[in-house]
Amino acid sequence: MVTKRSMSSVVVLCGLGVFALGAGGVQGKVRPAADLLRIHVLNVGQGDATIIEGPRDRSGDRKVMIVDAGESSKQGNEAKHVIEPALRNLVDDGKPGRPMLEVDYVIPTHYHKDHMGATRGKEPTGIFYLWEALNIRVKKMLDTGINYDAGGQGDRTYRQWVDDKNPDRERLAFDQLGPDRQIDLGEDVWVEVLAVGAEVPGRGLVVKEKYLATTSQNDFSVAMIIHYKSFDFYVAGDLSGYLHESWGSWYHSIESATYPQLRRTEVYRVNHHGSQWSSNYPFMQRLRPMASVISCGKGHKHPNEYTVQRLLGFEDFWTGRPLGSDIFQTKNLDGFLLGEPHPHTLKEQRVANGHILIESDGETSFSITMPGQEPYVYPLYDDAPFTDLPWAVKKAIADKAKDGGEGNTDYEWSEVYDRDDAEGGKVVVPGADQGMRGD
């Protein structure tokens, strides 16, 4: 159960580097402890932008990774007016007032404007702005590597920009273990990649090739878990948990395809801004987060009531014991707000109206801080640190290599339904006009 610390406790926490940040993004006087993993979920309206800082190295620097840098539906330039100030005022990377902001990695989970920005007009937005800004140095771009036209136009925009600008760019790899891994966020940090471009380790491409061109970009989102010692943080862009059709594209349950990889995780960065089609119930029962963090704004009625109820009210799969997850979200302008503790689990939904800061020492606890409030502090799960892939995934990868792509025959993978199943009557699929729009 979450505890809201008294003021005397907060003073102690500040000594460890856990402290509140005001809505204007001015950093406190106490520099965060060197051994903290720090995650900033930025308030960018109806979009996503997350900054992850690894623990400080011997020179005093932290590795910095930005996952998504989207613009809101109002077509503002959040990269310039929100993300860049956050890099300067919130990120603990070297001495304050540094003239050059260094970002080690930028990962667009997929190619929609609310996650990567746009190249329109005289001033680009999102990742395009960050790449060209004079006082920001982006060292490497890691993306899904998609080189075909999926549902929507974003992939074409991104590919054209890559051709024009020739950034230092690679496709995100599944294997992030060992000295040759692409992502190095510092000592004791491992980035476990669960899905890239609708592919899953040991399973391959989840969506049939004949359906790629009519599948939503959301299905191709990068999914990752950031492990820091015993603390775990899940982030996956706009992954879906249900087969459905909306906005002229189809969506598949990529969440279900990753079931064998999921282990209980302290913080869940909620898929697809809390859309009704994200965070399916079995997915929540496998991930079992203590806290769920949502980035949302206005225009799509996010988060959806059904999703909020699943986040707050999921139960233990084996015993039926109420578990649930507390919700922290950047805003709530037209989404569902429960307004009271969940009657079954007593978990609560809280609105920050600003940036959300997550910090952990990886050993004892993690905290979540909203502007102007004391930190909410949680103990970590008592699991040993995850330093390798789950056995089922390792077995599947080995069998796939040995059998020439046949995959793991000893482990029953969760079935992911597609349009063949819908057309054959195996499953009933909601139509484009069913449910709430904005998915």
Written account of the structure:
With about 450 residues, this protein is an alpha/beta fold. The protein has one domain: 4-Layer Sandwich (Metallo-beta-lactamase, Chain A). The chain has helices at about 5-15, 80-90, 115, 125-130, 155-165, 255, 280-285, 305-315, 390-400, 420-425; strands at about 5, 35-40, 50-55, 65-70, 100-105, 105, 135-140, 140-145, 170, 190-195, 200, 205, 225-230, 230-235, 245, 250, 265-270, 290-295, 325-330, 350, 355-360, 365-370, 375-380. Strands 1-23-22-21-2-3-4-6 form an 8-stranded mixed sheet. The radius of gyration is 21 Å and the shape is globular.
Q: Within the largest sheet, what's the order of strands?
A: 1-23-22-21-2-3-4-6
Give the mean pLDDT: 88
* Main β-sheet description: 8 strands, mixed
Distance between the termini: 31 Å
Architecture (CATH level 2) name: 4-Layer Sandwich
Shape descriptor reads: globular
SS strand fraction? 15-25%
Describe the structure in brief.
By secondary structure, this protein is an alpha/beta fold. Helix content is 18%, strand content 20%. The protein has helices at residues 7-15, 78-89, 113-116, 126-132, 154-165, 254-257, 281-287, 305-313, 391-402, 419-423; strands at 3-4, 37-41, 49-53, 64-69, 101-103, 105-107, 136-138, 141-143, 169-171, 189-195, 199-200, 204-205, 223-228, 231-235, 244-246, 249-251, 267-269, 291-294, 326-329, 349-351, 356-360, 365-369, 376-379.
